[in-house]
Design a protein that fits this description.
The chain is mostly helical. Helices cover 57% and strands 9% of the residues. Strands 1-3-2 form a three-stranded antiparallel beta sheet, with helices on both faces. The protein starts with 5 loop residues before the first helix and ends in a 7-residue tail after the last helix.
Length: 145
């Protein structure tokens, strides 16, 4: 198989997710996690253009929300671009992130609280219930808090 050049691939992902957000298929979408802020920043001009084309918005995320929805190594220490249409969606994401941080600080981020954060994140990403359940259940690499 031919190698796919990374920058163009990432642009395609961003454009595809912007189309999905614009169409209402997803409330929130994430670029693929990137190893460096420089890699992420190189995508910003294209991201702006794509958001303008679809009437969406973006948010630069350097401290992604880590939950049991995804393996910890997928997002820990990574850089991301969040794509959304309405301001309240970004607000929900930021509140969910703050809630998780407060649960960790209060030392109550376990059991039902921990599971609820992952479920709420999955719903914000517009994943079907069965997909959320499966992703959490099949995640072999959960965050140690």
């Amino acid at each position: 198989m031919q190698n796919i050049e990374s920058f163009s691939y990432q642009c395609g992902v961003i454009d595809c997710f912007n189309e999905m957000v614009c169409a209402g298929v997803k409330n929130l979408a994430l670029s693929h996690p990137l190893d460096s802020a420089a890699e992420r920043d190189a995508l910003l001009p294209f991201t702006r253009e794509s958001c303008n084309r679809y009437g969406t918005q973006f948010y630069i995320e350097d401290e992604p929300l880590l939950t049991d929805l995804f393996p910890i190594s997928m997002n820990a220490g990574k850089h991301n671009i969040l794509l959304y249409r309405a301001d309240h969606i970004l607000g929900q994401y930021l509140r969910l992130k703050a809630w998780k941080n407060s649960l960790v600080q209060e030392k109550v981020y376990f059991g039902g609280n921990r599971t609820q954060i992952a479920w709420d994140y999955g719903r914000l990403l517009s994943y079907p219930e069965e997909a959320i359940r499966r992703l959490i259940a099949d995640n072999p690499e959960k965050e140690q808090v």
